Amino acid sequence: MQRARRLASTAVVAVLAVTGLTACQQSPDVAAYIAGGTITEARIQGIYDQVRDELTAARDKAQQQGEANGASAEPLPPLTMPIKQRDVLNTLLSVDLLRKSAQAHGVQPAGSPTVEQVAQARNFSPQWEYTQLYAETYRLRTALQGAMAPAELTDADLRDVHQRLIKGGAADPSTTFDQFKSTLSEQNKALLQSYVAMRTELEKTVEKDHVKLNPRYGAQQVALLSAQSQDGNDVPLVVLTLAGNGAGDPYVTDVSAVTTVS
Q1: Mind listing the pLDDT tens digit for each residue in 55-78?
Q2: Which residues contact residue 251 at a Cβ distance below 8 angstroms, ignoring those fewer than 6 apart?
Q3: Burial of 37 (0-12, 13-18, 19+ CB in 10 A)
Q4: Does an H or E element contain 199, and which?
Q5: How far apart are CA 31 and CA 51, in angstroms?
Q6: Which entry of 37, 75, 253, 261 is 20 to 30 Å from 181 by CA?
Q7: What is the DSSP code string of 14-63?
Q8: pLDDT tens for each residue of 19-30
């Protein structure tokens, strides 16, 4: 139960896949249509390429230094990228949505975590634009948390959190729902109330904006609040779910979807 009480905000962002051929097909250079504009494939690729190019240069430099010190030259293994293009899109979408919400509430991004703190925690470079945007999603969530009027938690809300904790390995699987509910601290209850309220508000914003996404970026979901499992993985607890057309089909052609990172 102790681990189940350690809740933390995460910047996991997400999008819903589309299988129909929409405006994204008509404009293949567009990754997403957002309210009042677009996110282009070139924008995403530019952010991705910065990370790839810097990591490639660092790897090549390390090899050259090794050879100068007498190490034998060996073929370099393929570069392992810490992010994918869809992570870049998700972060751009998340920033767009959260900035609009912050503006509506008249709040500025919180002072922490800093770009340097996020870079250290994720093993990113603070010079990457991706890191800077990713850190901004954290600060915007923190600021918005304090601006939200607490939601009234229902048993359905709490059962969902309880099940996610168990499934994600962040709580003892023998813990019953009644035990979880009765031992939930006031601090964590207040945290859940804020993020459930945030989810409700973001659902309304998502519906209003009618964001359309290029289908190539796949299916994901939005985690607004997470816990940490025993093995250190993030376990989404409060999630903005974008579940298709409501008829059992998880894919739609007109997607109202923004938000992690995963």
Answers
A1: 999 888 877 776 666 666 677 778
A2: 16, 17, 18, 19, 20, 215, 219, 244
A3: exposed
A4: helix 186-209
A5: 19
A6: 261
A7: ------S--HHHH-TTEEEEETTEEEEHHHHHHHHHHHHHHHHHHHHHHH
A8: 333 444 447 788
